[in-house]
Amino acid sequence: MLVVGATGTLGRQIVWRALNEGYDVRCFVRPRSAPADFLRDWGCYHLSKPETIPATLVGIHTVFDCATRRPEEPIKMVDWEGKVALIQCAKALGIQKYVFYSIHNCDKHPDVRPMEIKSCTVKFLKDSGLPHITIRLCGFMQGLIGQYAVPVLEEQSVWGTDAHTQE
């Protein structure tokens, strides 16, 4: 199997569980120096480099796609162009199952760019004819960890004001 977004909160859990269940797992991760640089050296790649996709899919029967861009990355490049290239390659190479993690009711919020992209990806995947499952998560707040959880743990202001409270 291939896990796209293998170092994220969700992807890491999928990889861990799959390995514990005895599956052979290949990972697709973003090129960063830490903590996953060693994964790239082992043959793991990222959606921002579509030319790496075909080789990554050879020998794969199932793709788990739980990747999304980081705030500093262009959403169109990773969450749209990268996903389109991945879905097209998966279809061309006869992938048996594509599992896509989306957002609940994303189609009802076209004015929110990440929701619009997820909705378009769901439609593109459906129209591709690739055997797939779409899991629409009701909320995945990984982005809030740095914005809220860490400041709370470090007793810093959450809203970015100068007010200092312990509530």
UniProtKB/TrEMBL annotation:
Name of protein: NmrA-like domain
The places in or outside the cell where this protein is found are: Plastid
Q: Which GO terms describe its biological process?
A: photosynthesis
Q: Which Pfam family, any one of them, does this sequence belong to? A: NmrA
CC terms in the record's Gene Ontology section = photosystem II; plastid
InterPro entries given in the database record: HCF244-like, NAD(P)-bd_dom_sf, NmrA-like
Keyword entries, A-Z: Photosynthesis, Photosystem II, Plastid
**Domain NmrA-like residues, every copy:** 2-112
Record's keyword annotation contains Plastid:
yes
Q: What is its main location?
A: plastid
